[in-house]
Amino acid sequence: MGFYFAQFLTGLASASALFLVASGLSIIFGVTRIVNFAHGSLYMVGAYLAYSVVNWLPHGVFGFWAAVVIAALAVGVLGAVVEFVLLRHLYRSPELFQLVATFGVVLVIQDAALAIWGPEDIVGPRAPGLDSVVRIFGEPIPEYDLALIVIGPTVLLAVWLVLNRTRWGTLVLAATQDREMAAALGINQTLLFTSVFFLGAFLAGLGGALQIPRETISLLMDLNVIAEAFVVVVIGGMGSVPGAFLAAAIIGELNAFGVLVFPQVTIVLAFLVMAVVLVLRPQGLLGRPEIHAHAPAHVREAPLQPFGHRQRLAVATVIVLLAALPMVAGDFTLVLATDILVFAVFAASLQFIMGTGGMVSFGHAAYFGLGAYGAALVVKHLGGGMVSGLVAAPLAAGLGALLFGWFCVRLSGVYLAMLTLAAAQIVWATAFQWQEVTGGDDGILGVWPPGWLADRTAYYYLALVVCCGAILALRRIVYAPFGYVLRGGRDAPLRMAAIGIDLRRHQWFAFVIAGVFAGIAGGIYVYSKGSVFPDELAIPRSVNGLIMVLFGGIQTILGPIVGALTFTVLEDQLSRLEYWRAILGAVILFVVLIAPQGIVGGLARLADAVTDRSMREAER
Amino acid sequence: MLEVNGINAYYGRAHILHDVSLGVGGGEVVALLGRNGSGKTTTLKTIMQIVPPETGSVHFDGEAITSLATYKVCRKGIGYVPEDRRIFSNLSVAKNLEAGRLPARAGLAEWTEDKLFKLFPNLRERRGNLGHQLSGGEQQMLSIARTLMGNPKLLLLDEPSEGIAPVIVEQMVRTIAELKTQGLSILLSEQNLHFARLVADRAYILETGSIKFAGTLQELESRPEVRDAFLAV
């Protein structure tokens, strides 16, 4: 009894920290509709800053709590600066741009923290005056945990009062619901949004700062907390602070007790709860259904043009040039070229689901990784050859997409994106923790092609044939009636339903197709590397795919190929430098701000703008 | 007071407004008439800079407001009541009013919650109710009251008589007359000529994005062919 109660209290204490991060994320999303991937980074900075300030201030009760508050305030200012410099320019952009931009911030902050605080984990100080334990039912409970249990609800109350009892709160809630109308009523939203970012970032910083007596401070804190915070926000309902509290308590307890029952699968448990909540109550426990009536203007898509003779000739030329590449290039270039081909297929499959299908996937790495693991597992456990491995890859990915897709197509917009992320995290956690089958962190080694393909050149030709074939097949699907249905469903779901089309089934099928093609890419990838690790399933891999799509431009079919080329070469070049993450992050931010339609899309838009203008002038 | 000069507005490549010019004088009630899709709402949104015009200008009190941010247009003294009311459904009536509140303007009486409840008595007893609990007519009243909280000098009313019960329409006529006597200028869009006749001094007729008629209501009466060509369903 005492033990379970102690476990219950531990759960509540971790829920408090989680609530602080998640509530900030939720408030920011509610008002600005931005899914802030950098929120975990703000949390991490809060912890590092608090550690530095504690050491700087005189040691004692006052010093500790002053440091916590100072760190949180500083993080609040940092959040406001990020909003002012970057995100303010993206409020009308599609989710993809905002997400990728905030991921750029993650990269920059990660390297900044590395530069300032170094790569070693840091053990934080204990809280003076709260550094011992009290006994409840005979079980030792850290005093600091009790303090956290009090702080959580106190902050909830304070935030609730600010939102519901002040004019600022009223304006925030009004802008949350209808930005255009709020502007028409004279509300200056730029100021309002910056202050919302301050509050959200302050809460994240507070969460991080309060965590230092409980957790070692490390550079992994950002992405570790962000996935869990997303889960909490989605379960609670995006934009709902009490919902975040409730959900944080649920996840905190789930972790505390889940550890006792299934110590290996606690991460999976949280995501499973989220998946179930989303399917039963798509807007989250305390969230309100989204009102789509006044969504910001969407990026206009030019109608897709089938290739004419000239374009066909260009494609044929590129393929011939690629085929001739081994005559001039060395092994190193061929390895890079193989990578580019693989990621072109991966990005094309992601572009297919997002651009054509209109379903934003934040977890596409799941299907790439399932393909890679599918092939590797056949080799490792069934002793299969390469052919069976390459067949198993799309099969495994397709089955995964069939399962997760069934849940995902029931949702739309950000909720769908979150569920895809959750699905990817489930797969990642499984690969990471199921040591006996997947090798866990050590991955699966020795997945090589047979002798006649062992040569780099030979394998490059295999990759070339498979990847070009895959991209052409995807393109064919986009131009088939099936593709028309998807595009129609993306732009006008109600009309598609009205002409008797079961859109959900088509979307489910599209989800599976995207998964299968990502799986093909994963299969080719694993045989070119000879090994597979859980990293192939993790968030950064998914985000890399999104960056490639964004670099190329989301609504162009050639885009992903250009994007994969640019990104892979860029990453290859940059990763030799010391602070390459920060540089990559800066490049991402630059592209998002300067060419929000991507490289191919940007050029197309330029041409478009010119014809638009001349059209209007001709009219006059 | 308000001068719209030769504005052209587009949605993407669709050319919605063609050289629209119109004006509203101080203390005047002007009706913008036209069928569904003739460009009335877009004209009002262009004035608010919600849809910034591609060419042409909008002047208010002699000052150019073209390309100002929407919130600044509002703070200059133009209040906008949208067609679909767009009240904040998750906020109470009192908070909806609070969201619209702006400082009083020199030389004009300030609107307070109490004064607005006198103008719209139904809202008083609904003060604590959430927006989505109101009836259509109550939402229309709240939407107007919320905009009045910003103490505008010019009110843009988009189809105030649309979709509300006849008894509320009558009340709306009285309200507009009352606002006019208090010195407010009003530009309202309407499909309903009968309603416009009861409240407006002058009228413009808009058809496929261009002005087809400008004049007093009496002039419009005397030219049934204009009415039949552009307003009859």
**In the residues of chain B, how many domains can be counted?**
1
* DSSP helical segment count of chain A: 26
What is the oligomeric state here? heterodimer
| Annotation, overall tally of beta strands of chain A | 4
| Average residue-wise pLDDT of chain B | 92
As a percent range, the share of strand residues of chain B is 25-35%
End-to-end separation of chain A: 83 Å
Fill in the CATH topology of chain B: Rossmann fold
In total, the number of domains of chain A comes to 2
Helix and strand layout, with pairings?
The complex is a heterodimer of chains A (620) and B (233).
Chain A: H1 2-32, H2 39-56, H3 61-85, H4 95-117, E1 133-136, E2 139-142, H5 143-165, H6 167-177, H7 179-184, H8 189-211, H9 221-236, H10 241-261, H11 266-280, H12 309-328, H13 331-356, H14 365-382, H15 386-408, H16 413-433, H17 435-438, E3 444-445, H18 451-454, H19 456-479, H20 481-491, H21 493-498, H22 503-529, E4 531-532, H23 539-552, H24 559-574, H25 580-594, H26 598-619
Antiparallel strand pairs in A: 1-2, 3-4
Chain B: E1 2-11, E2 14-24, E3 29-33, H1 40-47, E4 55-60, E5 63-64, H2 70-76, E6 78-81, H3 93-100, H4 113-119, H5 121-125, H6 136-148, E7 154-158, H7 166-181, E8 185-190, H8 193-199, E9 202-207, E10 210-216, H9 217-221, H10 224-230
Please explain how this structure is put together:
The complex is a heterodimer of chains A (620) and B (233). Chain A folds into two domains: 2-280, no CATH class; 311-559, ABC transporter involved in vitamin B12 uptake, BtuC, CATH 1.10.3470. Chain A has 26 helices and four strands. Chain A has helices spanning 2-32, 39-56, 61-85, 95-117, 143-165, 167-177, 179-184, 189-211, 221-236, 241-261, 266-280, 309-328, 331-356, 365-382, 386-408, 413-433, 435-438, 451-454, 456-479, 481-491, 493-498, 503-529, 539-552, 559-574, 580-594, 598-619; strands at 133-136, 139-142, 444-445, 531-532. In chain A, strand 1 (133-136) and strand 2 (139-142) form a beta hairpin. Chain A is globular, with a radius of gyration of 25 Å. Chain B has a single domain, classed as P-loop containing nucleotide triphosphate hydrolases (Rossmann fold, 3-Layer(aba) Sandwich), CATH 3.40.50. In chain B, helix 3 (93-100) packs parallel to helix 6. The longest helix of chain B has 16 residues, at 166-181. In chain B, strand 1 and strand 2 form a beta hairpin. Chain B is globular, with a radius of gyration of 17 Å. In chain B, the strands form two sheets. Chain B has a six-stranded mixed sheet with strand order 6-7-8-3-9-10, with helices on both faces. Chain B has a four-stranded antiparallel sheet with strand order 2-1-4-5, covered by helices on one side. Classes of the chains: A mainly alpha (620), B alpha/beta (233). Chain A binds chain B through residues 167, 170-171, 173-174, 177-178, 180-189, 288, 293-294, 300, 612, 615-616, 619, and chain B through 10, 12-13, 15, 48, 50, 54, 69-71, 74-75, 80, 82, 84, 86, 88-91, 95-96, 98-100, 102, 146-147, 150.
